Amino acid sequence: MNYAKKFLYQSNYWYNDGLKKAQIRDMSGAIVSLRRSLQYNRENIAARNLLGLVYYGIGEVAEALVEWIISKNFRPRDNIANEYIKNVQASANELEVINQAVKKYNQCIGYCQQNSEDLAVIQLKQVISAHPTFLKAYQLLALLYLHSEQYSRAKQILKTARKLDTENPMTLRYLHELTRQRTRKGKRPEKKRREDAVEYSLGNETIIQPRHSALREAAGHLAVANLFIGAAIGAAIIWFLVAPAVNQSRSERLNNQMREYSEQITSLEAQISAQTRTLDNYRSQGEDAEAQVQQAQNTVDGYENLMSVSDQYDNGGYTYVTMADSLLGISRDSLGDNGKALYDELTEDIYPNACYDYFEQGTEALSAENYEDAIDAFDKVIRMDQNYNDGEAVFNLAQAYSGNGDNENASKYYQMIIENFADSDYVQEAQENYDAIAGESGGDGSSDGQDGGSDSGNTEDGEE
Fold first, then answer.
1. pLDDT tens digits along 36-46
2. Fewer C-beta within 10 Å: the chain N or C terminus?
3. Whole-prediction pTM
4. What are the tens digits of pLDDT across the range 46-72?
């Protein structure tokens, strides 16, 4: 009892800490504290609802909905999470806009990987315009501005990001990098001292005058003579050099124009090719986006089914077979860390009992040559525990497939016995049946092999 009180105390302590941080918009700190609160008490409704609000505040709508759905399953009535979910579902247009913004954000990541940063910047501006609280989009846009040395724009974006989450480590890191880059760029080389000047003092004043040289004085005296010499040389250059050079220049200008036209054509061809690739990327990304939406829906369905099984298990009014069927329909990989922990806890207690019931059902169906029901029962057993009864469930499933005329699947599970259960009592018979199926080459042989598999299955059941 003392431990239970300590857990509740710690859960409430971290909830209060998360609430304080959320009030000053330290969203990252609030998420850490609220997760700790739920580690001590996963049924802390206030902490879970607040965690959903924090996620919603930084644009993570899907994460927020997951937390509120879990909260709703823990307390179906008198729970403000119901209102949060209704408000999100009621604004269908807004939800679709957010969904499209998330898809575009994922596309921007692809653009960055393809070195199409300009396209990423343009699309990220549309994302933050449609979804103004999407923190990750602000951070990615700021990073692109930093990379292209547009420091003023990066600073403006990071200021907005920090308003959404004041202590986000990624935002603070980008701000630090921005300061470092601007400081480095702000340094100016020292001015070179003028070496062509002379300084001397006159009383309390310092006089600076240009340095005179004999060469510069001589040049002044020869300036007039140079005018006449230059005129004569200029006339000779015009006669002997300029006229041919003008013709040559005209020819070179035409050649340069031809090269420019050729380069423009090449550039246009490259743009058409790039636009074609971009169009192909849009099509493939549209398919990926649909898959992501389906995956998100599967995650929500998985959580709802998991909570339903948890309630059934707590109530004690449902059979292990019923609960096992629901658990088999849940993909463990689609769950978060807390969901996986609950899933493992339920399967650890439910699966062994359900395996026993399904094994009995399958054995009865196999003895009665009801191969369809036997296949269904033994298939569920090995999905829950492939090593059940030291491979007997796998062997019986192979026998059921053989009796049902499905030699391909029968061979598959006979081979599983041979490879994984070499020390079992069934390996010799499995090898004989596998060799018999492999040696069959016609309708008569196939029929004989099936009858032999059925008889073996009945013999095995009789030995049990």
1. 999 989 889 99
2. N
3. 0.40
4. 999 999 999 999 988 888 889 999 998
User: Which positions ≥6 away from 180 have C-beta within 8 Å?
Assistant: none
In-domain check, residue 126: yes
C-beta of residue 445 within 8 angstroms of C-beta of residue 425: no
> Rounded distance, CA 286 to CA 279, Å?
11
Q: What is the CATH number of the domain that holds 172?
A: 1.25.40.10
Please tell me which residue, 272 or 400, carries the higher pLDDT value: 400
Assess if residue 312 is contained within a domain: no
d(CA 261, CA 254) in angstroms, rounded, equals 11
**Boundaries of domain holding 19:** 2-90
Q: Are residues 350 and 405 in the same domain?
A: yes
Query: Contact at 8 Å (CB) between 427 and 456?
Result: no
Q: How many domains does the chain have?
A: 3
**Sign (positive or negative) of CA dihedral 39, 44, 47, 48:** positive
Residues 149, 47 share a domain: no
Q: CA 295 to CA 65: how far, in whole Å? A: 15
pLDDT tens-digit readout, 112-153 = 888 888 888 998 999 999 889 889 999 899 999 888 888 888
Distance CA 209, CA 193 (A): 14
3-state secondary structure string across 201-212: EECCEEEEEECC
Residues 455 and 357 in one domain: yes
Q: Locate tokens 């002379």: which residue?
A: 198
Model pLDDT, residue 364: 92
Q: Record the tokens describing residue 202, joined without a space.
A: 């006159």
Q: Is residue 228 part of a domain?
A: no
- Beta partners for residue 287, in sequence order: none
